[in-house]
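request received
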Amino acid sequence: DAKTTQPPSMDCAEGRAANLPCNHSTISGNEYVYWYRQIHSQGPQYIIHGLKNNETNEMASLIITEDRKSSTLILPHATLRDTAVYYCIVRVGGSARQLTFGSGTQLTVLP
Amino acid sequence: NAGVTQTPKFQVLKTGQSMTLQCAQDMNHNSMYWYRQDPGMGLRLIYYSASEGTTDKGEVPNGYNVSRLNKREFSLRLESAAPSQTSVYFCASSDPTSPNYNEQFFGPGTRLTVL
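response:
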């Protein structure tokens, strides 16, 4: 699985968009980009994933650069409940394998 | 649906004691996983079961054994607990055959302290 690099922490004002970057310069053609988050003391929660195209669901949007070497998770209107550690994970799909969690980004949404 | 459930929520053991952490899922998933999370760190895989009847080692299997009892249940056993096994243990499940590849569903965790 390709290695990912994320900033250790970010702040965001409540109601504003939170943009969380992730670098994955060694990503292979068959590897997906996944985002999970972990709210304090809880189990991780899946947010979104993508291969090449930008993706959007009810929780967030995922923007992947054309060369696929980096991506950005966007929470369009951050709330206090979005305060969590966000993990960017790159791996192939379709098989039972571990998710490799790095250190992630601690996002703090400020009132 | 309850999703993924884990018991117990908290446990304190003395060094050398044994215990089994229980995990069950009601989503008919084929694959199940056990992770541990030490303070300030990401999750690390201990063991996983790709399907009923199979188990494989993950990144940190030493000191642990697992049993995939049936499709629903996947237990983690510590035969002789050590202080280094103090951690939060998460169970997860997934259906690799689903269109949403590798979305893993996590339980609430078991907080284990070994004195």
